[in-house]
Amino acid sequence: MLLKDKVTIITGAASLRGIGWATAKRFADEGARVALLDIDAAGAERAAKEIGAQHRGYGCDVRNEQACRDAVQAVLRDFGQVDVLVNNAGVSQAHRLLDSSQDDWDLVMDVSARGAFNMSRSVVPHMRERRSGAIVNIGSVAAQRGGGILGGPHYAAAKGASQTLAKSMARELAPDGIRANAIAPGLVDTDLLIGKLDDAGKGRVAESTPLGRVAVPLDIANACLFLASDLSAFVTGIVLDVNGGLHIH
Ligand SMILES: NC(=O)c1ccc[n+]([C@@H]2O[C@H](COP(=O)([O-])OP(=O)(O)OC[C@H]3O[C@@H](n4cnc5c(N)ncnc54)[C@H](O)[C@@H]3O)[C@@H](O)[C@H]2O)c1
Fold first, then answer.
1. What is the dihedral of CA 27, 82, 118, 176, to 10 degrees?
2. What range defines the domain where residue 159 resides?
3. Which residue in 18, 34, 146, 187 has the fewest CB atoms around it within 10 Å?
4. Ligand 1 site, residue 191, Cβ cutoff 6 A
5. How far, in Å, CA of 82 to CA of 30, rounded?
6. Residue 248 domain-assigned?
7. Å from CA of 90 to ligand 1 middle
8. Residues of the chain with pLDDT > 90: what percent?
9. What does the mean pLDDT of the chain come to?
10. Active site residue 58
11. Is 150 part of a structural domain of the chain?
């Protein structure tokens, strides 16, 4: 049991087909007690129930600082501690530069970057007191390759911000016993793809991926498990590529 009795907050975890929920389930299987946060409060509660009675769902719009503080306080009231934070909430848009509006920029940046900032600032005082904690930000291969299939420039920039935020938190918080890392997934088969990529498109991505397929949410959940648990006790400030070998060629 790699996360026995560890309390984990995962944002953007309401979709049963998403990375957040797969991570919640994987962590629960390793003994964690999981708080699933999402802008869709009812969905988060349903998603938690699906995993088991000891897990809980909370409504939280990560763009809103007070909402993040309130959600973390509610988790502390219900569970007594927070050991792990996974900043997973994200919105993707494929709009090109000149087709993106101010509102597009605000939405995409605010959920991925400001959201990770708000949530981290809400849990760090508590982690600092306990001199222990692990934070994982979900970035994207889009940050490394300049967008592409699922994301326009604003999405790539938001994911770059999330990855760099992890790195700078790692530097600042290491003396407090808090580790911070990021994951850069390649294409993952979730609802984020709906309306952006059909089966033929997924097939083309799979063909150009050395391991010959697109990722499933569990691929990312397993990487999260590594970075959240003591398996990675001496790892901080990294961006872990989970992309089937996309960078080989
Ligand atoms: N699917 C991919 O190919 C892929 C690749 C690289 C990175 N990612 C990233 O992985 C993360 C999870 O995405 P997914 O593919 O599971 O998609 P998803 O759409 O299933 O999950 C995103 C979740 O975030 C929630 N959310 C949106 N706005 C929110 C807000 N303001 N506050 C709280 N929650 C909010 C949504 O309700 C949803 O449940 C995202 O950050 C995404 O950018 C996905």
1. -110
2. 7-241
3. 146
4. yes
5. 16
6. no
7. 4
8. 94
9. 97
10. no
11. yes
Would the CB of 78 count as within 6 Å of ligand 1? Answer: no
Q: pTM of this prediction?
A: 0.98
3-state secondary structure of 166: helix
Sign of CA dihedral 232, 168, 59, 216: negative
The three-class DSSP label of residue 167 is helix
Distance CA 209, CA 35 (A): 34
pLDDT tens figures, 16-47: 999 999 999 999 999 999 999 999 999 999 99
Contact 156, 147 (CB under 8 A): yes
What is the number of domains present in the chain?
1
- How remote is the CA of residue 3 from the centroid of ligand 1, in Å? 23
Q: Is 25 left (phi over 0), alpha (psi -120 to 50) or beta?
A: alpha
Distance CA 197, CA 179 (A): 35
Active-site residue, from 155, 180, 190, 197: 155
- Ligand 1 center from residue 129 Cα (angstroms): 30
**Strand 84-87 versus strand 133-138 pairing type:** parallel
Q: Is residue 247 part of a domain?
A: no
